[in-house]
Amino acid sequence: MPLAKRVRLLYGQPVTLSGAILAGGMGRRMGGADKAAMIVGGHPILARVLRVLSPHCDPIALVGRTDVPEGLTFPFITIPDAVSGHEGPLSGILAALRWAQSEFVVIAPCDTPFLPMDLVPRLVAAAKNVSVVMTATGQQDHPTVSLWRTSLAVPLSEAFSCGTRSIRAYTRTLPTAMVSWHGAGYDPFLNINRPEDLALADRLA
Hints:
Elements: E1 5-8, E2 14-22, E3 39-40, E4 43-44, H1 45-53, E5 60-63, E6 76-79, H2 89-99, E7 104-109, H3 119-125, E8 132-137, E9 140-149, H4 153-161, H5 167-171, E10 176-181, H6 195-204
Parallel strand pairs: 2-5, 2-7, 5-6, 8-10
Antiparallel strand pairs: 1-2, 3-4, 7-9, 8-9
Helix pairs in contact: 2-4
């Protein structure tokens, strides 16, 4: 496995950073379509997510599947969710924490075409003395776009085995930070759950 990329936090300490793109959803509200392969503004959503992560994160894993979507060629490692049976995004986060050899892993869903370009630097800058850094727009949090310490792999495994499936419920037990974005005119964490979301994203792109 490639060595994780080494970056510097704003408070001066070097850390290693990997990336994980969650792609294990079934896309039921999209009629079972492969959301990772969808096109927004002429580009695959997956390519748009990679554009935000790749300057800072290395390696990057596509979590929740064992293949890269047809027609797409990206430098991904593919890994399955930690638990089979579509147990939700926390299973993908657990898989990412177990896989990563870095100190931190940045988590992002595969269906978020407008992630801000300053996402990773701002998450890393907020990571001092916390276990998880999450994102928000206004009062709305976005727990699947986040930064996690990989030392959480074992405690999260234990919580998962005890039935925890909610990211919010689990992170309430941890020291966390929240980073908010404002003023874009749209939600940069818009995710594509329904056909109307895809239509909106195309209009915004």
